[in-house]
Write a structure and sequence with these properties.
alpha+beta; 2 domains; three-stranded antiparallel sheet; 18 helices; 13 strands; about 45% helix; globular; Transposable element P transposase-like RNase H domain-containing protein; TNP-like_RNaseH_N
Length: about 500
């Protein structure tokens, strides 16, 4: 049954029926699938069914596996009304108090593990373009309270830097102005008032904002201390040097920055959607580009390129450390020298970003605050988990919202701009089937977390009396022949 849900989501209804009727795959009918899902209403708001199932799952988890966080994000949906037969209600209006309008976004809240890589959708809502003050905070606190009541330990909340989320940061008391951000502190835990909770800007979103902010403003001015220390001839890291790099390597058989093309550096014609894809920023800022600029500087005797290479290398190193997915980049005290060097770099990077100036006006940018906020949060969290709780290692990717973004990529894979009902049905089917796939056009890196609950087992147990006789035959050749006869008949 799990496989059938996955195939239906991946192929769509027509493709699934073709495999079943024309290719004679031994798959249950769509009506049988619908009957299995009738018990899971998946209505908007807190998913009470999920929390009930989590109760027994959490009871069998180890103490470290119960360490988790909350991630939330929203995606744009089509403004239209549709009737849901399962829930017996219309979908398409905003579902949060104070909004009497058609919904423009779907908001999803997930719980994610820290010590082990698990994730679970626990709430969703339909919203307008803006969210009323205090609503998002109250929703997050409600999720945290329910999770803590089950025995989970919530340590952080991760969001992107959208205006609704910044409003929530303010509601939690996060200090993110230029003068306060370097000494930012964690917030009082809403449930365990003697403990702290971290409000973390999503690192991948911050990285994209940093790169695109550099592209938009063309220049970043490095601190004079860095310029003197490294003997640079200028303090300007110019995005225009990337165009010159593409021209320099255009006729070379072997290119160091092989992924960088003329289209990538045609900044005037880059649309907003492409600009906010992770791949777009990755092509501009990575280790290969920094090395290529250094080589170009040596070949053409242009020392001003070294400043740009240095800026790119620093931003890229920070991003890799803040999104580590493998043990070679994970924070760990097994090699104490490497550990201390990593912490020293992250602390230095905060000062580096604060003292850098952006654009001709040299004004402070929101991504600078976000860069320092998330770095300070990771520095405090690593101390708690590595020193206090004695984790062997800490993968910093567990604090990003890649899981939600990849979920949205799967939903968009079926409909680029789904209606509220299509969004709800896709979210329900993904949660139950535990379907995961890599979407090449996704704006985020692929998430490697596993779904915590096997909802299909609970659905089958509730509906065991409605199983079609042919489904009890197994997968033998005889069973396939019987199913084919039933299908033909």
């Amino acid at each position: 049954m799990v496989n059938s849900f996955e195939m239906r989501f991946a192929c769509g209804t027509k493709g699934y029926n073709f495999l079943r009727n024309k290719m004679h795959y031994p798959l249950p009918s769509i009506r049988t699938q619908q009957q299995r899902l009738e018990h899971v209403h998946f209505d908007t708001g807190i998913l009470h069914e999920i929390f009930e199932l989590l109760r027994s799952k959490v009871a069998s988890m180890s103490a470290n596996d119960r360490d988790c966080g909350v991630v939330l994000d929203e995606m744009s949906i089509d403004q239209s009304l549709s009737f849901c037969n399962n829930n017996k209600k219309m979908f398409g209006n905003a579902t949060i108090p104070g909004q009497n309008q058609k919904a423009t976004h779907g908001l999803v809240v997930m719980l994610v593990g820290i010590h082990s890589r698990w994730k679970q959708v626990v709430a969703y809502h339909f919203t307008g373009n803006t969210i009323p003050e205090d609503f998002q905070k109250s929703l997050v606190v409600d999720v945290i309270q329910r999770a803590e009541n089950l025995g989970l330990n919530v340590h952080f909340v991760t969001t992107d830097c959208g205006p609704n989320n910044i409003r929530m940061w303010n509601d939690f008391g996060v200090k993110h102005s230029k003068d306060e951000v370097l000494n930012s502190k964690p917030q009082v835990h809403p449930i365990r008032t003697n403990d702290k909770i971290e409000i973390i800007p999503d690192v991948t979103h911050v990285f994209k904002s940093c790169v695109q902010g550099w592209v938009k403003n063309k220049f970043v001015y490095l601190p004079q201390e860095i310029v003197k220390e490294n003997g640079f001839v200028t303090d300007v890291a110019s995005v225009l040097h990337l165009k010159e790099l593409v021209d320099f390597e255009a006729n070379k058989g072997l290119k160091m920055a092989s992924r960088l093309t003329f289209r990538d550096v045609d900044f005037l014609n880059t649309n907003r959607l492409d600009a906010m894809k992770f791949g777009t920023s990755y092509k501009l800022v990575n280790h290969d580009v920094a090395v290529a600029l250094r080589f170009m500087s040596a070949e053409l005797d242009r020392p001003e390129l070294l400043t740009t290479a240095y800026f790119i290398e620093c931003v890229w190193k920070w991003f890799k450390l803040m999104t580590s997915r493998h043990l070679d980049l994970a924070l760990s005290m097994r090699n104490i020298d490497v550990y201390n060097q990593t912490l020293a770099f992250l602390k230095w990077y905060c000062r580096f970003i604060q003292e850098s100036k952006v654009g001709q006006t040299k004004r402070w940018k929101p991504w600078q605050s976000a860069s320092i906020l998330c770095t300070n949060s990771i520095l405090r969290l690593q101390k708690h988990f590595l020193v206090d709780k004695r984790y062997q290692y800490l993968l910093t990717c567990r604090f990003t919202q890649d899981c939600v973004e990849n979920l949205f990529s799967l939903i968009r894979f079926k409909q680029k701009r789904p209606t509220a009902l299509q969004f709800k049905d896709s979210l329900k089917l993904l949660t139950i089937s535990q379907f995961m796939a890599e979407i090449p056009s996704s704006s985020y890196e692929t998430d490697d977390r596993s779904w915590l609950l096997n909802l299909t087992e609970s659905v089958i147990k509730k509906d065991s009396t409605n199983v079609h006789p042919t489904e009890m035959l197994g997968n033998s050749n005889e069973a396939c022949m019987v199913r084919q006869k039933f299908t033909t008949f």
